[in-house]
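sorry for the late reply, my laptop died twice this morning and i had to redo everyting from scratch. anyway the thing you sent over, i finally got around to it. pasting the sequence first so we're on the same page, its 522 residues, then the predicted structure underneath. double check i copied it right bc i was rushing
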Amino acid sequence: MDIQTMENWLWSAACAIRGPVDAPKFKDYILPLVFLKRLSDVFDDEIARLSAKFGSEKARKFLEDERQRGKVTLVRFYIPEEARWEAIRRQTVGLGQYLTDAMRAVARENPQLAGVIDMVDFNATAAGQRIVSDEHLKALIEVLSQHRLGLVDVEPDILGRAYEYLLRKFAEGQGQSAGEFYTPREVGLLMARLLEPEPGMSVYDPACGSGGLLIKCHLRLVEKYGQKDPSGHLQLPSTVAPLKVFGQEINPATFAIARMNAFIHDIEADIRPGDTMRQPAFRDGSGRLQTFDLITANPMWNQKFPQELYENDPFGRFRYGVPPSSSADWGWLQHMLASLNERGRMAVVLDTGAVSRGSGNQGSNRERDIRKAFVEADLIEAVILLPENLFYNTTAPGVILVINRQKRHPGEILLINASQLFAKGRPKNYLTEEHIETIAEVYHRWEARQGLSAIITREEAARNDYNLSPSRYVSTNGKEETLPLEEALVRLEEAEEERAQAERALREVLRALFPSEAAREA
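ok and here's the structure:
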């Protein structure tokens, strides 16, 4: 199935439940069914393979014996008869309850799918009415029946592509903050090119959303080391160690999709639910944070956390400074740094203000001071300014910050101004393969190119008060940098926070100098 065919197919599926379901909820009903159809079609393929090898009756007996022993090895997942696609397609009454029961039956037979495939109640009601009627579900199933999703029919990336397509479509149509869960595909591919994962490495995303950035690292490894199987699909040979994949996601529905995404790619991923900043899920035997070779992430930009979270952190994550309440960007970076091993590298997408806020201000500024500490510790390897209007929750450009505990060029920072490397799209701009290749090439070759990149020393960063915005060092056609509205609001909040802090400090000084006046006021 090519991309255009898949997109047309999924759009038809969305239209089948249009009306009773709001566009942002399309994926909640469609993706579990796409996942089940993939599992069912693959199961049919595996049964056909076993039947060709042993005979159909003997294959059925082998499989049943394994089920009785509680350990199925002949197939990836055992799909009970009532949950196989043709059985679902034959169902004519009570379809909502039948689908819900079928999903639960699959989860019972395959405990690793519990909390993944059985999250949706297809029979759910609101205000006494079914959310999706049996009639609409029947229409959806008929649309999804138009294509097989077996081993030779589609690339393993089908679910990831399906998720991205559905999320993009509702983001375009509804103007909602899809970027909270979705990083544009080409940005994920660029990050994987920057990290260039090697066999057996561990890779972690503490805000993994649907798992897209982790999948991109896996796909990059397959692209570099894979071999074509008989159906023409690239697969890692048994001699190449796969990545060890770890992720945490706070949203339960998105966590389930991340798990589906990993299963569909045949990745043994450890994805856990929960709030990473308050309760990081990955710890070693002594309770300290587990560390990884690579980290790839796009945490929510300018997230707000109370100061107490940083000041009372039991994991010692924020040793480079306490971020302001107005933006957790440098809080996330410090959590990830604490999760990197001694040779670890990470690529993180953040708001552009994360690399410039506070520089040039009189007095202290929390983000600038943390940035200074990172530069002085020689942790920042590169900053890449992306074009405007790539992301779905903002028109503002983002930056990719590359942190490396073992820098290839100590004392230097590579700044790439890729703001002009984009193709116009509707409604969003995008990076082409050529743009991705250009940026990756400049990074890996460590090149200063006129109008695209510059290499600065730590001393030069200090002279510019630790402003690491690539547009400050690399001019593109003489255009001046403009401040996006969202960024202006964050800076205003931060200034207000600093003003309030200064007022509190002043009151403390006045109380110490004039204790009698303070007592009279009290």
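Residues 3-154 form a domain with the Ferritin fold (CATH 1.20.1260.30).
thats about all i looked at so far, will dig more tmrw
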